[in-house]
Amino acid sequence: MTGRQSRILLAKLLNHGNSNTTRAPPWQHCIRQVSTKRICVSNMFLPSYKCPPAKDVTKCKSLQLMLNAGLIQSAGPGTFHFLPLALRSLEKLIKLIDSTMGEIGAQKIAMPCLTKAELWKTSGRWDTMGAELFRLSDRHGGEYCLGPTHEEAITSLIGAEKSLSYKHLPLRLYQTTTKFRDEMTPKFGLLRGREFYMKDMYTFDSTEAQAMETYNAVCVAYETLFRRLGVACLKAVGDTGSIGGSVSHEYHFIAETGEDKVFHCSKCGLSKNKEVIDSDKPPCPEGLSATDCPIEHHHAIEVGHTFNLGTKYSQVFDASYVDPSGKHRTLEMGCYGLGVSRILAACIEVLSKGSEVRWPRLIAPYQVCIVPPKAGSKEEQGIQIAESLYDDISQLPGFRGEVVIDDRYDKTIGHRRKDANIIGYPYVIVVGKKALQQEHLFELHSTNIGNSNFVNMGELVQKLTTESAEL
Question: Taking a C-beta distance cutoff of 8 angstroms, is the pair 201, 172 a contact?
Fold first, then answer.
């Protein structure tokens, strides 16, 4: 939609909002007529499941909220069904990640979750990964694993390309797929499961210096992603672990539920995971006193990890490129992970309050929930106004397909508004008795900032379009 088209639409909506006319068909007929095109709460699959007071649930806010709001349901230890609202949010997050990766020239691929044991034995990780690696055999006795990560698979793929030219570098390939890890004690819902969504990127460069340029570019991209989500993220030096490499950083959301401990100082810039220090507290890198360098430690949830791998895998799998002189040279590698389903839960863990889910606006399942009057109430005529409002807001830039209407007309406004708050729609618009005045007034609740006020149609459109443009 062009700027001119947006202005014309805005003028039309403002004029419509000041009109005191009503539409021809009665609201009962209107519901039957448009029920297939409007997104209605009555049609949503929202199981009325309330989580039991289990220790794992009560200690993890995001798990309790996601279960109670009908976003996920347990399928077994460490595995979950993503129900419609959660899946919609997950898909938005993946789309945001795709956009961010595209800005640094990354190309998306998809590799099998089922990986041959031969590759893992070649790298040596078949033995070193231990019990966390899901292993299985096919009917012919072939050995496989369900990949928790894909360094072996991608390097084998690139190694098979013997004519890869230096002109094709840097090469940045990523995927967002289901990963598996046989956790001994899966807990905290999506924060530590056996099956999870992960974005894993693998990069190939000609020299160490260029590999570090790629590394820094990805780090900036990650910081951009978390800034767009609006969640504070702490970058810390991390352990290379079983993946290996010479340089490693982790990205954390600060939360009491977090199983990592991160030391951080806002003055000197120190930021390290406890796993990489030998003492109880790291010294200030600038030699400042404890007073001048107030190093703090936080519980945190790791949501991303970056590794500069060097030639650890490319040498093993003979992954090389042809340089300008025609010689084959070993590729420099990096790998970069984002726990996609973990980010989803961690955002809820950090942002939510009480019994109500709070989302980053960019990935909320829907942006607006409209709550009409109850059928048979004195304000019953407001139902038609609510439906007209739905149609009008759906025409605004950025709101097509982002509006739901709670058409459970047998329930009170208070009941439905409470349900909307539990799910956490960024905007809840109540159509009550003031909407029947000559100038329609709507009760607008801005959920994420916790305020509400009455607005006319012009003010409502202005607020929605302005805040949408700021995202």
Answer: yes
